[in-house]
Design goal:
This protein has six helices and 16 strands. It has about 425 residues and is mainly beta. It has a single domain, classed as Porin (Beta Barrel). A 16-stranded antiparallel beta barrel has the order 1-2-3-4-5-6-7-8-9-10-11-12-13-14-15-16.
Amino acid sequence: MCGRCLRFLSLLCAGVCLLVSPLYSQLTNADSHENVDPFHGQLFGNWGGERSKLLERGVKFDFHSISDSLWNIKSEQKERFASYNRIRGTVDIDLGTLINLQGWTFHMTAAWQTGANLGSYLGLIANPTSLASGNTFRLDSWWFQKGWMKDRFAVRVGQFAGEDTYGNQEFGNSFIFEPMGGPTDNLFNTFESYDPPSTPALEVRVVPINHVYVKSAVFSQDRLPYSNNQTGLVPYFNGPPVSVSEIGFTPGRNASSIAPADSVASRKGYTGVYRFGASYNPGKFTVPGSTTPQPGNYLLYWIASQAVWRPDPKEAKGLDATLSYDWSPQSINRDYTMLTAGLRYNEPLPLKIHNTISLGYVQNSLSPRFLTPGTPAWQIEHGVEFNTLLNIFPMVLVQPVIQYYANVGGGAQRAVVFGFRTKVEF
């Protein structure tokens, strides 16, 4: 093998790089980047020019670390500190530039994550951190993608998560708690796949007109993904196919079959995204009071995100708003509906560094069909979050947050959580 190939493979295995391309990166929510300049503030810099050479050949990398540190400062539970941490490495390759396969791209990402889930300890429906999941070190997703007509039509096949692109919050990187810092929680009702235990999948995306896109995907269901596929290295089929479809309207910018993640650059002007989607699982589901499983379950979701005020109509500074709602049959699903709403002010503080202030609200309702006879009726759980994002160094982001919850887990208790998120770009 030639020296250049060995050098490339060693860099790939080490993962000592950073991908920030909006063109074919699919990093979303907490894993996405506020700034998409290819060399904006990496801790390891340009590696003596090697990063630039790889970019010229169509190869882009990412390596970053995210940590949520949260304290239960008031609830019926005893005081407790919990931290959840994730390190992710990603590579995206434009195969047209690298080996002249025009329109083809390749994506692969792996994650190591560990920590304690404060939401489980407090008994919350709305998780205080969008990072919390299984403690694991695994290959998350990989896929090959082919685009035609300047990506107005694209097909993706491989192993990836439905919740990364269907039902995820447009402003996910601006919030800490899970209903707004990631995909809507109720997508679990249909066992739509999530990261990092992604499953085999196929997706088709079309942009019929400039401001409208349509996409649909089929994912292999896996109700125990961490147990059934512990490494993610081999695609694993363990259930019926879950289908998800979405149609979107993008005022203020042209739609693309490869939607860029929310970033400072994408917020310029009066842009917006309006989405409607549906997920369906033909498998069997347990119904309260019946010994016979019911076939089929579905979920509908609506998400709207819009820039509502800009001092300069061509810049990103100003106010953004987001609203989402999802619903699934309460005869099958305990957490059957959820509402979220949020406001984000870009660059509110007179600082030279990038900063935002965000206010979020989540409302969760539980189905009375799942209530144990003789117990008090469930209450609607309410959660409110206020956070400030500070890009204190080009490669370091800090996000202090305070959260308040009423009717914890559908009961009558309250909880207050305080903490911060840190993110380091390598």
